User: Fold this.
Amino acid sequence: MKLDLNCDLGEGEPLARTQALMQHITSASVACGGHAGDLHSMEACVRLAKEFGVRLGAHPGPWIRRNLGRGKIELTATGLELLILQQVGALEQIARAHGVKLHHIKLHGALYHATERSEALARGYVLAVAHRWPRARIYALSGGRVAHVAHRAGVPVWEEIFADRGYRDDGTLVPRGKPGALVTQPRAAAARLRTFLKGHRLESVSGALLRLRAHTVCVHADTPDATAIARAVARVIGA
Assistant:
């Protein structure tokens, strides 16, 4: 299977950047009112995804705009399910009005990492998606807890690697703000994808080679030079 190239969009980036990124990616994960996004940005992203033939996904995040919803949070499985129902449901309504189907759901920032730390949150998330959106895929960290729970539950999951983020030796991401957290050079991002395609391995910040599975690779819209990174990665993977 050819790698999908996804990007988190509608997070306050200029519309011109959203449009530029849509020309290189194959799926978009759209912020739906939690950590970022509003009705206007969601509708703009849906229209652009339809125009460029990009798969549309929901990107629910914590109800925290500070620091773009990144960092640690406290959340119950019930609270997470309600958050997902509200945010994904909002995007789905807009998508339906434009004749666009919801392809996937990918948690953002604090939610993405909270479900990796907690078995209860991971299970609650996966079962909520299976119940509410049985045809949608989950995008989840390669080799992580959510992917394992989804596989075990028979829920479609595309495991994700990151072109623009650094990895620790345990396969988790280097926290933002720490040395090596971001990959900002298009050539460096493209090179690591070439390495992955040859042997399904990515290099950690310490130089260790991590063996990972992936259906999709992510570039963040707020990474410096994001459009050039997406363009370079798309060329490598033939997106």
Observations:
- The chain has a mean pLDDT of 95.
- Residues 4-160+215-237 form a domain with the TIM Barrel fold (CATH 3.20.20.370).
- The beta strands are 4-9, 27-31, 55-59, 102-105, 137-141, 157-162, 201-203, 209-211, 216-220.
